[in-house]
Amino acid sequence: MISAILVMAGIGLVLGGILGWAGIRFRVQEDPLVDKIDAILPQTQCGQCGYPGCKPYAEAIAKGEADINKCPPGGEEGIKRLAELLGVDPKPLGEGLEPKPKSVAVIDENTCIGCTLCIQACPVDAIVGAAKQMHVIIADRCTGCELCLPPCPVDCIHMEVVKEDLGTWKWRYPIYPMKRVS
Amino acid sequence: MSRRLFHFHGGIHPEGHKAASSATPIRSMDLLPRYVVPLRQHIGTPARPVVAVGDRVLKGQVIGAAEGYVSTAVHAPTSGRVTAIEPRAVPHPSGLFDLAIAIETDGEDKAIDMQPLDWRNQDPSALRNRIREMGLAGLGGAVFPSYIKLNPGTPRGGASPIHTLILNGAECEPWITCDDRLMRERAMEILEGARIMGHMLGARSIIVGVEDNKPEALAALASALSQVAAGDIEVVAVPTLYPGGGGKQLAYTLTGKEVPAGGLSTDVGIQIFNVGTAYSLYRAVTLGEPLISRVVTATGHVAQPGNFEVRIGTPISDLIAAAGGALAGASGEIVGGPMMGFDLMDLAAPVTKAVNCLIVKSPALFPPKPEALPCIRCGACARVCPVELQPFEMYWFSRAKEFGKAQSYNLFDCIECGCCSYVCPSHIPLVDYYRFAKSEIWEREREKQAAEQARARHEFKTFRLEREKREKAEKFAKAAEASKAKAAVPADGEDPEAARKKAILEAALARAAKAKEEMAAAGIAPKNTDNLPARVEREISEIEARRAAMSEAQTATDPATDPPRAAP
Fold first, then answer.
1. Interface list for B 271-310 with A (CB within 8 A)
2. Res A168 pLDDT > 90
3. Could you give the count of Cα atoms lying within 13 Å of A121 in the half-sphere of its Cβ?
4. Which residues of A touch B429 (CB under 8 A)?
């Protein structure tokens, strides 16, 4: 009787030890919540949420300090995905925030004086230029955050809506007449 | 023929309508006053224009050069002058304009010097470059640049990984007969093109697959084959069943090899080309003629339906005119076949490398689709799907915009053949949903990549700013330390050099003070005007006199040199 208990206890201890060791040795590093939220955010770094970039906003959401509806570039789709991730109800975009069509900034090359202020403001280094040299925006890298507009002393930057072309054209959601059955 | 054939899943038998256009030989078209050649005629990066407005071009001259890897060149269809390089109407379901080169014909149709070539002595790599320059892309409809498909990849066990080359002459879509006529009339050239392809790929066997509803084409190919006595080429009749001309379906029918999900036929050692591509490849390689024309079927509700040798860039309205014009009651045009084609938005759009057929619609030939009803999950779509998918599941998820779930039902293996929509008793436009879902998923993928890039660039910028700040702080700290060290040295009086100089200076001062004291004690005033020689005395008095004279003259002329000021 005692030997049986001892054997069972011994087996339990050995197996428990192995499990404990394996739990530490083969621990899967889970994506922290901040990274998961950051992956959903559109990375425009525009600051419309009131935080200085997507990562700080993601951190604020993770801490419960910020609401999930403060990101206009992410749109309803983004809010839906955040709600799904965090297990809360989706809600409409916050007050005063409105989604805009995807745009890129364009520098008027005749007016640009080469002051480099926009280069310093661009969060993704999408502006090329040097002091007293004309600046130009790499359209492919521009996130459309509009952060370069206010610092320009000669107002030579404007936003242009990205037009659909054959490379980016999408098939539309099918719309067709349905027969009324009853 | 002894080859064992396999039967792919599903498939349908839509009405053929092929006799309408297959009876008459391929006709050529008169030279038109102007052509519009789009730069995006193939899958991949559009060609880059290499001519300017006002330039004179010759027939076959490169006007758009291949840009990047997945790309190919475009050429002038005739000689003339470039009048515009601007967005123009193109045959595309969106109706959007795209960059094109407009050419005004000069009527001479003067061609560039074409360089014929004997392919037998050529390295496949050199041939591939030639094909890229010649602008070849798959003429079956997918227009993938041919030179890429003709690269067999790294050899496996000393042999090419491509063991079989299949020429696709199935032409399974209703109405279309351009490949049929091409095989009937130009079988020899097609077979020669196939042998060039076989040479480039290192393929051990070449199979030409033709649906058995084209006996004349099969006979023409067989007779051409007997003339060249090529043992490595086999012409095989396959059963008429839509979509038997789909690449993966034809490969399965002929070899029994199934392409894995998400894969290509090359994964199972098979490469497939359209017969039209083989014909154009023959002309490009052996004659040096770029891809500037193709055979197009113009059929449906027109006066004289048939097949035409059409120059790339011919406006579709001119093609319809060549087919005798649309008859009264025409209700639109389809580019491609009725199963997979799309409605044309603008008749000014030109024929491109992808356009194999143009059908003018009429309410009698294409009655409007009955109104749709809800899906009843009958499974008719799944029974005809040649890829063995579950179309109704993909429909539900696409409709609900649950793209991830639609994708998990292998949405991207769907070939959009339209069998499911064809048999759906509720008349639901199923394929429209799959196309919608696919392009939404692609868009999301693009957005995701853009976001990844933006994140990386933002993180790097943050890192760079911090690094610069740190470096600046370090530099300041260093400079401050250095100046502090400098200031500290004289206070300590440690510098031996400075001490030595100071000592010398002090000794000199002491000596001078001592001498002064001694002179004062002896009663000598420090004067240097005594005991001067007579010559020096005289000189001094002369200078004194001059000075006195000058000061006198100054006082005398002063009022004259200072004129009275004019009254304000």
1. none
2. no
3. 20
4. 174, 176
Task: Give the best residue of A76, A77, A124 to mutate against chain B (max B CB count within 10 A).
Answer: A124
Give domain A33-86's CATH architecture: Orthogonal Bundle (1.10)
Best residue in B455, B460, B462 for a mutation probing chain A (most A CBs within 10 Å): B455
What is the complex's ipTM, to 2 decimals? Answer: 0.81
Encoding tokens for residue B322? 């060549």
Work out the minimum CA distance from A178 to partner chain B, whole angstroms: 5
- The 3-state secondary structure of B54-115 reads CCEECECCEEEECCCCCCCCEECCCCEEEEEEEEEECCCCCCCEEEEEEEEECCCCCECCCC
Terminal alpha carbon distance of chain A: 77
Which amino acid is present at B502? K
- Which site among B90, B428, B458 would you substitute to test the A interface, given the most A Cβ atoms closer than 10 Å to its Cβ? B458
Task: Verify whether the Cβ–Cβ distance B454 to A45 is below 8 Å.
Answer: yes
Question: In A, which residues are within 8 Å of B89 by CB distance?
Answer: none
pLDDT at A26: 84
Listed as ranges, residues in chain B with pLDDT below 50 are: 1, 560-568
Q: Name the nearest CA neighbour of B11 among B425, B377, B417.
A: B417
CA–CA distance, B410 with B429 (Å, rounded to integer): 19
pLDDT value of residue B525: 64
Q: What is the C-alpha separation between B62 and B459, in angstroms, rounded?
A: 44
Cα–Cα distance, B357 to B42 (Å, whole number): 17
To the nearest whole Å, the CA of B395 is away from the closest chain A CA by 11
Backbone φ and ψ for B83, nearest 5 degrees, come out as -100, -20
- pLDDT tens for B376-399 read 999 999 999 999 999 999 999 999
Overall fold of domain B119-360: Rossmann fold (3.40.50)
- Taking CA–CA distances from A143, the nearest residue in chain B reads B454
Residue B172 has which token pair?
Answer: 């399974």
The reply to whether the predicted model has a pTM over 0.90 is no
> Rounded CA gap, B142 and B504, in Å?
98
Residue range A100-164 forms a domain whose CATH class is alpha beta
How many Cβ atoms are within 10 Å of A106's Cβ, its own excluded? 15
> What are the boundaries of each domain within chain A?
33-86, 100-164
Residues of B in Cβ contact (< 8 Å) with A45: 454, 458
Chain A residues near residue B373 by CB distance under 8 angstroms? 178-179, 181
Return the number of other C-beta atoms located less than 10 Å from residue A86's C-beta: 16
Half-sphere exposure (Cβ direction) of B486: Cα atoms closer than 13 Å: 6
Average pLDDT over residues A42-55: 90
Closest Cα partner for B112 from B319, B314, B290?
A: B290
Interface contact flag, B455 A38, Cβ < 8 Å: yes
CB of B372 within 8 A of CB of B427? yes
What's the pLDDT score for residue B560?
A: 47
Query: What average pLDDT does this structure show over A77-86?
Result: 89
Q: Pinpoint the alpha helices (H) of B409-429.
A: 419-423
Q: Inter-chain contact A124–B454, Cβ cutoff 8 Å?
A: yes
Domain spans of chain B, in order of start: 119-360, 369-485
For residue B126, what are its two tokens?
């050199």
